[in-house]
Design brief:
Elements lengths: L7 H16 L7 H8 L3 H14 L2 E3 L6 E3 L1 H14 L2 H15 L2 E8 L2 E8 L15 E3 L4 H8 L3 H10 L2 H5 L5 H14 L2 E4 L6 E9 L5 E10 L8 H22 L3
Antiparallel strand pairs: 1-2, 3-4, 3-8, 4-5, 6-7, 7-8
Helix pairs in contact: 1-2, 2-3, 5-10, 6-9
Amino acid sequence: MASTTPGAQLISRTAAVLRAVSEGMPAGIATAEVADHAHIARSTAHRILTALGGEGFVDRRGDTGAWVLGPEMFLMGQVASERYDVTPLARESIRRLAGATGESAFFSVRRGGETVCLLREEGAFPIRSFVLHEGIRFPLGVASAGLAILAFLDVAAIDDHLATADLAGRFGPQHADEPLRRRVAITRERGYAVNPGLLVEGSWGAGAAVFDRTGAPTWALSLTGIQSRFDDSRLPALGRLLMTEAHRLSREIQTAGTG
């Protein structure tokens, strides 16, 4: 589409810039980092950021010069939330999960070929994993939330994603096609996903998909913690809790008519 639709390339680049700034919240992100994330030249990133700043979509911190999301993004988000926001329902779910397990609990949403973490709730266990935070994005199939969602897409969608995402090149050989497909199959069989320290050594995660009104895996609930807290004696119980809460949240979303 970018080669045939006038202005499509600019729109695509602008969207990539906004996503990069979003990932840098709340501290902000430098122009060079935005360029790296968006795969564009630094001068191009600076021009787009300056134009977005003039319209109020991004802003620049006076103390560091880093770029942050601007007031227009907040206002547009408030309007969009009337249709898409399920976080009030999800917040209760992650609070229950964090309280019952002591681990950090998360709620993520699918956006195209990625997941975006929307909510985090800390558990009582004093040693925590800090791999995830609100706003961070990962391709489907990488973190436990993204693996849970990927596993319940249709086969054609899984094939398309794996053909284009280059997960092995970005995240290592454990994310190559064959081992990832094995994890997808295991996830579909048991109902929840496990990330056995593949992003950060010793930091484990488990996740379960949450489904929208059409039956599509659109969100995920997940837990992260240190490896010893996700061993064979405890992992099945964590998985059952995740699936129970994911089923409850799916029903609540479908009943509320949100998403």
